[in-house]
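Input chain follows. Return structure tokens only.
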Amino acid sequence: MTRTAGIAWDIWRAGRASQDEIDRRQRDRLAALVECARSSSPFYRRLYRDVPDMVADRVSDTGTDRVQDLGRYLGELPPVGKRELMENFDDWVTDPHITLAGLKQDLLDDPSRIGGLYRGQYLVVTTSGSTGEPAVLVHDPTSQLVASLLGPIRERRTLMAAKGARAFLHRGLRAAALIADGDHFAGVVLTESARRRSPRIARRVRVFSVLRPLPDLVADLNDFQPTVLYGYPSAMVQLAAEQKAGRLRIHPLLAVASGESLAAHAAAEIEAALGCRVTERYLASEALALTSRCRQGLLHVNADWNIVEPVDDAFRPVPPGELSHTVLVTNLANRVQPLIRYNLGDRVQLAAGPCACGSPFPTLRVEGRSGDVLSFAAADRATLGGAMLEGTKLEGARSDGAVPAGKVVTVLPLALGTVIEETAGVRRFQAIRTGPRSLTVRLELWPEAATAPVRTAVGERLGVFFAAQGAAGVDVRFSDEPPRPDRSGKFREVWSA
């Protein structure tokens, strides 16, 4: 059996395995990853110097409380973040031939090499840097292979249910990647890597940059006639409007959204206009095959190759059914650049019970990035009582609800965004916190809506919202600049500048 066939067979078997068998895969792969990190990564050797030498051996022990053993073991391993890893990049990687300077010189600074392998074996992607300094992620052959197999094997029934296998057989696969080009972002790197492997794939899979003018994008898609769309849902929403207006004339069988959160109303809008099934993937540049979607429409953690730990703001475990502050991710497939208890920064919730689809893997709901929680100055003598809205946390409030001077109110992006989004006339928006008492709003309106009354309505609704939170008078300013994606092509709705 070839290595590819062996991993594919193991992935297929794990989808039918017991929880005990999946736990065993996690423990064995984690023990091997930690051993590799300790022996070959100077960064992890220093980080784990106080971790007991035999802790990895305990993970592989059999016993009645195996899950608890794994949890205790993970708790002994310090969490890591992007900044400290990037500051120690050359000591982080386990291949001494890889350096950050070398990567930049030989690969990252050359757009023509996007999707090419570094040193003949490593796939390299970068993050957009929307939350700070971009990360540079190196994936070894095993990580690439696992990522390429997990999706097709785990989601084959979901994908074929789009309009049936016959439709794909009749029309063939023609995939349009709606992502940003020009840099080594994960979406474009994975697409171009596939195109480099085969001329046949290159003819059937193409990148359609969301950074191009919309009329040009529409014209190219009309010529290509894709059967599958994948990429940013914000771009798909724009295309749905173009299709409804008659300028876009495509008939895809499936739309796969990733890279941004997909709201229910957006999915319905895309599905109605394009006449295809819409599904979603939750992936990360750090873990290329983190989840798979089932026939019930839920996301399942690929727990045989990833460990996902929802935690609070002190990195303590959050039980299933509760929303986390952030999530720690361990990629069990990648040895060249170990990611062990990496702070991904997303707010997630694991389901408390099994999924109706019968999968042994836990289901996951993703709300958004914890870094986008906004903080505003609290009113000096506000008494909130029952006026506090769901999704708001008051730092330093007394038991009677009074807010001491100098304290802050924190607001979840979903709560603030809903206030703007549900205002009549608003099609798309962006809300940017520019200070403890200021918020800038960019609006895109429906054609029939007038700018002045919509802005007035949004301002009044936000005023009521902030007052109910106990925030000091927040100055809401409207920008003439329309909502726009960041440099990676992703569309963020709410964040702090």
